Amino acid sequence: MRELPKLTLIDGQEVTLPKPTMKMWLRVAEYDDLEKDEWPMSRLMTEHAKVIAEMYGLDTIDDIDPADVLTGYVEAAKYILGVATEKLQKLPKNVEAEEEQ
């Protein structure tokens, strides 16, 4: 398994993403499914920061560096969503075919 992402807060403290749970996977997947194209930048940044705070177990979004919001979200979300497919990729190809029958 890949190394868990880290996020550096404004005070220089580095926090590591906890091992993802199904609840967090679902939260990130549902958030990613939202139509965000029409959101103003202020809402996009705020909502991304809220999800980052949830992912990292932070009490507030106030300690997150604004410069890290978009990249921090993408890195952590990619990791969390990837956890589900990582083990599937290790299955032999014929196992998937047998399950479909």
Instruction: Give the tally of β-strands.
Output: 2
- What profile does the largest beta sheet have? 2 strands, antiparallel
**How many individual helices?**
4
User: What's the arrangement of strands in the largest beta sheet?
Assistant: 1-2
N-to-C span: 30 Å
Summary keywords:
single chain, 101 residues, mainly alpha, 4 helices
Can you walk through the features of this model?
- By secondary structure, this protein is mainly α.
- The chain is built from four helices and two strands, in the order ββαααα.
- It has a two-stranded antiparallel ribbon.
- α1 packs across α3 and α2 crosses α3.
- The chain has helices at 22-33, 41-56, 69-88, 93-100; strands spanning 6-8, 14-16.
- The longest helix has 20 residues, at 69-88.
- The chain has a domain at 40-91.
Give a concise summary.
This protein has 4 helices and 2 strands.
How are the secondary structure elements laid out?
Elements lengths: L5 E3 L5 E3 L5 H12 L7 H16 L12 H20 L4 H8 L1
Antiparallel strand pairs: 1-2
Helix pairs in contact: 1-3, 2-3
